[in-house]
Write a structure and sequence with these properties.
Layout (H helix, E strand, L loop, with lengths): L1 H20 L3 H12 L2 H9 L5 H16 L5 H33 L1 H7 L1 H17 L2 H29 L5 H5 L1 H16 L11 H6 L2 H10 L7 H6 L4 H12 L5 H14 L7 H6 L4 H16 L2 H14 L7 H26 L1 H25 L6 H18 L4 H9 L5 H30 L3 H19 L8 H12 L18 H21 L1
Length: 529
């Protein structure tokens, strides 16, 4: 008995050591660098337009008056500002649509690098718009920045999911959400009056976009491409082996290569699957539906409405107008801390509890917020309850719904399907984003404070669907996740081979042979030395 207990203890110890070793230096640098030049900029551009809004509108009016000899009317000014804000989502939709052929041809890492061309171009256009006296440059810069965001929110989760071991895939995937939150918070900080939140300095807010892009361009080229992409799509076994060694921090990567080859045996080919083919594939039907629902709820859950009400609620609580920008930083700080917490616990708790629990808590706090906003003029302490609800809703969103949809999209689909899946997810994401921006003013105008009940209903519907449909994907391979969905899709795992399409590639046996020969050659060289 003692011997068995000792051996079990040793096995557990080895597993624990293995899990610790999964976090290699190259893996950490790749995830941080990739996210800093990608999802960070998405979050930053969500919040950066809020602080200088008054000055930008004044710039629009002055430019209009200089051109046409009269001031712009309020309706036109509101339209121009609405276009400036919402056109970011249109650019994002374009980026999500074009990302599939780009990641297929250039690879995941090179796509992130090339995407910086959009970011730098947008930064130059927006930061120089005041100097040139052209508000069209600012609007054009926003749409180009949206294209950058649309590409990065698909390419980055794809890259992270393919370079990470399955034991830490969720934690590494949460880096996308964490850096979105850090980007939002950074935009809030730089927008303070003491920094760039002044009439003469607001262009610097947009010029700062260049910094993360340059850092990514300098560091990322020294890191490998996705080993799965190299092995399954470029059929380069030696480079894939080196990439695995770099990211995993160990020399023997035969198990990881074999695991990827096992997937290729099931799928028989790695020809890029189109969106139409993916939608017609019965073996992934419920995976696609789940991605669409989680991405739709990600944008339609009402977080944008929270930002709309924040200043008003802070004013009702007796906070002065001058102090509100500083108090608003608390929302960005809570968002960031909640996202970091999610990244730390996701591999322990799993995706299901965080995602379902996050939506469930949002339902509760939306209901309480509706009551407190409706009655806040009758009870003096209710505005403080409203502030608590706002922070609680933000935290509930970030612990699960804020990042896990991107993780699931990378986990549900095999190599040949992943680009099309991210394209579908990105399209739903950006269309929902645009719909919220377009419809929320009408919802708010018609329902007033009761508009939050609409978002509570969406969160409840999302949580209910996920409770009945979503399997736990923690520490599971693609084949294991497919098997979890197989019964609902009404297919056996073997039948999935029928759902894939022939393409020109080496057979998995050939790849395995190449890998074996490369290992043998390496061992021969060692013997000679």
């Amino acid at each position: 008995m003692e011997t068995k207990q000792q051996s079990n203890g040793e096995m557990k110890e080895k597993k624990a050591v293995g899990k610790k070793m999964n976090w290699s230096g190259s893996l950490i640098v790749a995830s941080l660098t990739g996210a800093f030049g990608s999802s960070f900029l998405y979050g930053y551009n969500l919040s950066v337009v809020n602080a200088p809004a008054v000055y930008i509108k004044r710039f629009y009016n002055e430019t209009w008056e200089r051109r046409y000899g009269f001031s712009v009317d309020d309706g036109t000014l509101t339209l121009l500002w609405s276009i400036t804000v919402s056109i970011f989502a249109i650019g994002g939709l374009v980026g999500a649509i074009i990302v599939t052929p780009i990641v297929k041809f250039f690879g995941r890492k090179c796509t992130l690098l090339l995407n910086n061309v959009f970011a730098v171009t947008a930064a130059l256009l927006m930061s120089l718009s005041l100097l040139v006296g052209s508000f069209e440059m600012l609007i054009l810069g926003r749409i180009i920045m949206g294209v950058d965001a649309g590409i990065s929110l698909s390419a980055l989760p794809m890259y992270l999911s393919e370079i990470s071991p399955k034991e830490i895939r969720g934690s590494l995937g949460q880096v996308t959400a964490i850096f979105i939150c850090i980007g939002v918070f950074t935009g809030q900080v730089l927008g303070l009056p003491e920094i760039f939140g002044q009439e003469s300095r607001w262009p610097y807010l947009f010029g700062a976009i260049i910094v993360p892009s340059l850092i990514q361009v300098v560091i990322l080229p020294f890191l490998p491409e996705s080993p799965r992409y190299l092995l399954l799509e470029k059929h380069n076994t030696s480079k894939a082996e080196k990439a695995f060694q770099t990211f995993l921090g160990k020399h023997d990567v035969s198990h990881e290569v074999e695991e990827v080859l096992a997937e290729s045996r099931v799928q028989r080919n790695t020809k890029l699957v189109s969106i139409l083919q993916l939608l017609r594939t019965r073996a992934v039907r419920w995976q696609v539906i789940t991605v669409v629902i989680t991405m739709g709820c990600y944008q339609l859950c009402g977080l944008n409405a929270i930002w709309y009400y924040t200043n008003n609620i802070f004013s009702e609580a007796g906070i002065s107008h001058e102090t509100i920008p500083y108090v608003t930083l608390s929302t960005g700080a809570v968002e960031t801390l909640a996202a970091v917490f999610s990244g730390l616990v996701i591999e322990r708790l799993g995706r299901r509890p965080l995602l379902i629990g996050g939506f469930g808590l949002m339902v509760v706090f939306f209901a309480v917020l509706t009551v407190s906003l409706t009655l806040q003029k009758t009870v003096h302490w209710l505005p403080y309850l409203s502030i608590f609800c706002i922070l609680a809703i933000i935290a509930s969103f970030c612990i699960g719904p804020g990042g896990i949809p991107f993780v699931l999209t990378g986990e549900f689909f095999q190599q040949s399907q992943r680009p099309a899946a991210f394209m579908i997810a990105g399209t739903v994401n950006w269309l929902s984003n645009f719909a919220v921006g377009l419809l929320f003013p009408f919802i708010q105008g018609g329902l007033q404070t009761y508009c939050f009940l609409v978002f509570a209903a969406i969160c409840f519907a999302g949580a209910t669907y996920l409770f009945f449909v979503l399997p736990e994907t923690k520490n599971k391979t693609f084949n294991e996740i497919s098997q979890a969905f197989a019964k609902r899709n009404k297919v056996s795992l073997e039948m999935q081979e029928i759902n894939h399409y022939p393409g020109e590639r080496k057979s998995s046996a050939e790849q395995e042979s190449n890998f074996t020969s490369s290992v043998d050659n390496a061992e021969t060289k060692k013997g000679i030395v």
